[in-house]
Amino acid sequence: STEDIYQSELVRAFVKGGNELGLPHIDYNANFQSFGVSTVQATVLRGRRHSNARAFLHPVKHRPNLHIVTSAYVTKLLIDPTNKEAYGVEYERFGKTYRVGAVREVILSAGTFNSPQLLMLAGIGPQEHLQELGIPVLQDLPVGQNLHDHLAYVGLHFLLDKEVSLSAYNLMTSESISDFLKNGTGPYTSLGGVEGIGYIKTELSQDPEDIPDIELIFVGASLSTDYGIFTRTGMNIRDDIYDGLFRPTHNIPSWTIFPMLLHPKSTGYLKLHSRSPYDYPLLYGNYFTD
């Protein structure tokens, strides 16, 4: 389900400021609403994330025609070399290897990195690369050669003259904790601090006129809000950079906004590290190369 997310004074000011700049308040998941600002949307239930698994799998997990296997690591796609059709998968679970056959089809949905990894391990990928690793080539295809990533700048830092942000001061109160635990409301239901979204077009854009090139991710807090405990380490920010830019503002209310490039021209690629499905693939982002 989609519920109203907690809104601080800051995100209301963000939307109002966008309106004053000529950006309408939009439903960014609707058609034909390309440019504008909005509070963030999310699928939550009683203030907590409501994932696809929780929403759709859990209610039907006891059906006799549905089998859900957890803690399983797929190691191999089973493909018939004569007709090049997938007929099952091989997986490892708690030290044992299992095989599962498919009656109709195998749907490969292992994510951006593991999907191409499994395909290449099965012999579907760039011929030269597969031959380098001694993998029999089933089909020469540019698998893993079209890696796109959205770059964002996370260093913008705006200070406030009063406490209206999602700061520890507002979060670490008995009222906020009680609201969340009892009612699923309050600032703890915020999506990691992300409260607003905006879509704009810059003068440097080479995209079609009706397509924005920058997404603005509004956060009702900043990198210094948690005193460098979680966000800094999660973003792998060096100590010297954090100490110089953010530590001096530990006790000052602040917020940030992340400008994100929507349509990067640079293209990266992925290669196998080895023939083992347990070795992480090699990633080459090629950022800023185009």
TrEMBL record:
GO molecular function: flavin adenine dinucleotide binding; oxidoreductase activity, acting on CH-OH group of donors
Annotated ranges, domain Glucose-methanol-choline oxidoreductase N-terminal: 4-151
One Pfam family recorded for the sequence: GMC_oxred_N
Gene3D superfamilies registered for this protein in UniProt: FAD/NAD(P)-binding domain
PANTHER family: GLUCOSE-METHANOL-CHOLINE GMC OXIDOREDUCTASE, RE36204P-RELATED
Family according to the record: Belongs to the GMC oxidoreductase family.
Protein name in UniProt: GMC oxred N domain containing protein
Taxonomic lineage of the native organism: Eukaryota, Metazoa, Ecdysozoa, Arthropoda, Hexapoda
